[in-house]
Amino acid sequence: MEKKANHCIACSVEQCANNSKNGYCVLDQIQVGTHETNPTVVQCTDCESFVLGTGDCCH
Questions:
Q1: In terms of pTM, does the model score above 0.85?
Q2: Could you report the per-residue pLDDT of 13-45, keeping only the tens digit for each?
Q3: CA 19 – CA 11 distance, rounded (Å)
Q4: DSSP helix/strand/coil, 44
Q5: Spatial CB neighbours of 46, under 8 Å, sequence gap ≥ 6
Q6: What pLDDT, in 10s, does the model give residues 42-56?
Q7: For residue 38, what are the contacts with CB-CB under 8 A and spacing of at least 6?
Q8: Which of 16-31 are b and which e, b meaning 16 or more Cβ less than 10 Å from the residue's Cβ?
Q9: Quick one: pLDDT band at residue 59, thresholds 50, 70, 90?
Q10: SS3 label, residue 42
Q11: Phi, psi of 44, deg, nearest 5
């Protein structure tokens, strides 16, 4: 069964198993977090919903 793209969540990380392979996430929602005590730049944030894909997870 092909996963349906959520057009409210754009995603350019093709290695993620939740990527629909057309620029969107297939999840209903994502969790965004940080690995820093006091995040001050974009690089301090993380998509905690990331799951490493197998390369052909959504085809």
A1: no
A2: 999 999 999 999 999 999 999 999 999 999 999
A3: 7
A4: helix
A5: 32, 33, 34, 35
A6: 999 999 999 999 755
A7: none
A8: bebbbbeebbbbeeee
A9: very low
A10: helix
A11: -85, -10
